[in-house]
Design a protein that fits this description.
Blueprint: E1 2-6, H1 14-28, E2 33-37, H2 43-51, E3 57-63, H3 65-72, E4 81-87, H4 93-97, H5 104-113, E5 116-124, E6 127-129, E7 132-136, H6 137-147, H7 153-166, E8 171-177, E9 183-193, E10 215-221, H8 228-237, E11 246-251, E12 253-258, E13 264-266, E14 269-271, E15 275-288
Parallel strand pairs: 1-2, 1-3, 3-4, 4-15
Antiparallel strand pairs: 5-6, 5-15, 7-9, 7-13, 8-9, 8-12, 9-10, 10-11, 12-15, 13-14
Helix pairs in contact: 2-3, 6-7
Length: 289
């Protein structure tokens, strides 16, 4: 039995179009399924929490990184659940990192093939993150994105990005990796990656892998503001990790203390916290892959 979870308002009609194709494929394959349409933010979490108490719950998620995050945070019993990804969101960064197909037909072929594998996720105190935990410029862009009205989709994201770059501010954070020596930094941004990219393709953690049992930790330090426009291409191509103003680490656990008013984002969801303890979780989350 497949359980389809969809935000009917997602993707400005894109998700409903994808649902038609998914249902058609399932019917042609003679598969039983049920459709669960979300009605408010967090509803997918509530639906999955209930479904995860039933053995052999195969969940097909239609959406993007935010929707996938809601589903992940709803799983109470991982043994009972396998997730299938049908990307139809704005960013779709996690499916890019995990090499899942982006076309509906191809994504459903992977699901119906039935091969199950484990992928990692990040546990952040009382919440989970599937793709990237970010702070600094990343969050500033998302906050601006929420304010901007004239644009949509990736255009809106990049308009927010360029505005943020023109009004750059530094963020004071203290990082401790795997219980080591605390490091105080004034940063442009940081990324704690299970996945590689944010914002629909900007590879903040280009060397991250979703199934290696490690966190990719990228710290982009304070720099002369006048140089930022000239270094933008490095961020868009993932070459920033090779520059002197960037530090790259790997680890299994990170503690981040906020020394100013900085906020965080997990899979695009902004939240405030003075202290975060996060660690990688492996061999727990099953997906069709």
């Amino acid at each position: 039995m497949y359980h389809i979870i969809i935000n009917p308002l997602g993707g400005k009609g894109k998700s409903l179009k994808a649902l038609e194709e998914v249902e058609s494929i399932l019917k042609e394959s003679g598969k039983q399924y049920a459709v669960h349409k979300t009605e408010h933010q967090g509803h997918a979490t509530e639906i999955v929490r209930e479904l995860s108490h039933t053995p052999d719950s195969d969940i097909i998620m239609l959406g993007g990184d935010g929707s996938f995050n809601e589903v992940l945070n709803g799983i109470d019993n991982f043994e009972n659940v396998t997730l299938g990804f049908v990307p139809c969101g704005t960013g779709n960064d996690f499916v890019s990192a995990s090499n899942h197909p982006k076309k509906v037909k191809d994504a459903m072929a992977v699901i119906l093939k039935g091969k199950r594998e484990y992928v990692d996720f990040i546990q952040l105190d009382d919440r989970r993150c599937l793709n990237v935990l970010g702070a600094g410029m990343d969050v500033d862009v998302l906050l601006k994105y929420a304010e901007m009205k004239p644009f949509h989709g990736k255009v809106k994201y990049y308009a927010s990005l360029f505005y943020t770059l023109a009004h750059t501010k530094w963020h004071k954070l203290r990082l401790t990796i795997d219980g080591g020596k605390p490091m105080d930094r004034s940063v442009f941004m940081i990324g704690i990656g299970n996945g590689r990219s944010i914002g629909g393709g900007m590879p903040i953690c280009p060397n991250a892998k979703v199934d290696d049992g490690k966190l990719s930790i990228v710290v982009v330090n304070e720099m002369k503001k006048c140089l930022i426009p000239f270094r933008l291409l490095s961020f868009l191509t993932g070459k920033h990790v090779k520059k002197a103003w960037t530090e790259e680490f790997t680890g299994s656990a990170v503690k981040i203390e906020v020394l100013d008013d900085s906020k965080f984002e997990a899979d695009g969801e902004v939240f405030a916290s003075e202290l975060i303890n996060c660690h990688i979780v492996s061999n727990t989350l099953k997906v069709f892959r």
